Amino acid sequence: DSGVTQTPKHLITATGQRVTLRCSPRSGDLSVYWYQQSLDQGLQFLIHYYNGEERAKGNILERFSAQQFPDLHSELNLSSLELGDSALYFCASSVVKAGGFSGTGELFFGEGSRLTVL
Amino acid sequence: AQSVTQLGSHVSVSEGALVLLRCNYSSSVPPYLFWYVQYPNQGLQLLLKYTTGATLVKGINGFEAEFKKSETSFHLTKPSAHMSDAAEYFCAVRIVGGSGNTGKLIFGQGTTLQVKP
């Protein structure tokens, strides 16, 4: 058990819909990262939040957005869903601090949310 | 820009045989390197990591990897494969230092290890 909790584990929805994926990081971790895993793209970094602030963006579509709340949990919002958005979405947390780091910087991953768009 | 290449998307070995999963990285600065394992329907679990110091690092489940700067490689090995090692393995690099240091990991495409009885 990594200590990172993601809900829901599975989600089936239709094209055009909107979903919200939730992530609770490990206790004490201020950084949350979102990744998308698909067969054709592999593991793609989407976005990084540190203590409530967006710190880095990767290959995240404009239809997607995220935020990190004061209690440090994070949500990834996916809207106007398309078939190609079907994937496994991972959240990871770390003790990494923006502008520097502490520890060796490994990420601790949740078990993922599997999104199926029909 | 940093990148990771894993040679071979599928590797098949017999139980008891040597496991060798290849990873090459590209980085303009000394990187931190990681190997993660993903079992079916599970998240990624850290196997081992290289940061600084000893270039041969040992991880969980009998795996080890050697950082070779001259070859820009970080290959993962295990002397004797076990059926329970069947999984997908990911090599990852972390940007260290500079404006790109947000702590994110860049992953390779993954290698599926099959272990035959």
List the helices and strands and how they pair.
The complex is a heterodimer of chains A (118) and B (117).
Chain A: E1 5-7, E2 10-13, E3 19-24, E4 31-38, E5 42-50, E6 53-57, E7 64-68, E8 74-78, E9 87-94, E10 108-109, E11 113-117
Parallel strand pairs in A: 2-11
Antiparallel strand pairs in A: 1-3, 3-8, 4-5, 4-9, 5-6, 7-8, 9-10, 9-11
Chain B: E1 3-7, E2 10-14, E3 19-26, E4 32-38, E5 44-50, E6 56-58, E7 64-68, E8 73-78, E9 87-94, E10 105-107, E11 111-116
Parallel strand pairs in B: 2-11
Antiparallel strand pairs in B: 1-3, 3-8, 4-5, 4-9, 6-7, 7-8, 9-10, 9-11
Q: Any descriptors?
A:
heterodimer; A: mainly beta; seven-stranded mixed β-sheet; 51% strand; globular; B: 117 residues; mainly beta; six-stranded mixed β-sheet; 11 strands; 0% helix
How is this structure best summarized?
The complex is a heterodimer of chains A (118) and B (117). Chain A has strands at 5-7, 10-13, 19-24, 31-38, 42-50, 53-57, 64-68, 74-78, 87-94, 108-109, 113-117.
The gross shape of chain B turns out to be globular
- Counted by DSSP, the helix tally of chain B is 0
Helix % of chain A is under 10%
Q: What is the count of helical runs of chain A?
A: 0
Q: Which structural class should the secondary elements of chain B be placed in?
A: mainly beta
Mean of residue pLDDT values of chain B:
91
Biggest sheet details of chain A: 7 strands, mixed
Number of strand segments of chain A: 11
Contiguous uncertain segments of 5+ residues of chain B? none
- Which residue ranges of chain A are poorly predicted, with pLDDT under 50 across at least 5 consecutive positions? none
Radius of gyration of chain B: 14 Å
The level of helicity of chain B is under 10%
- Assembly state of the chains shown: heterodimer
DSSP strand content of chain B: over 45%
Q: Indicate the overall shape of chain A.
A: globular
**Spatial separation of the terminal alpha carbons of chain B:** 41 Å
Would you report the number of β strands of chain B? 11
Provide the residue-averaged pLDDT of chain A: 91
Round the Cα radius of gyration of chain A to an integer and report it.
14 Å
Classify the beta-strand content of chain A into a percent band.
over 45%
Order of helices and strands of chain A: EEEEEEEEEEE
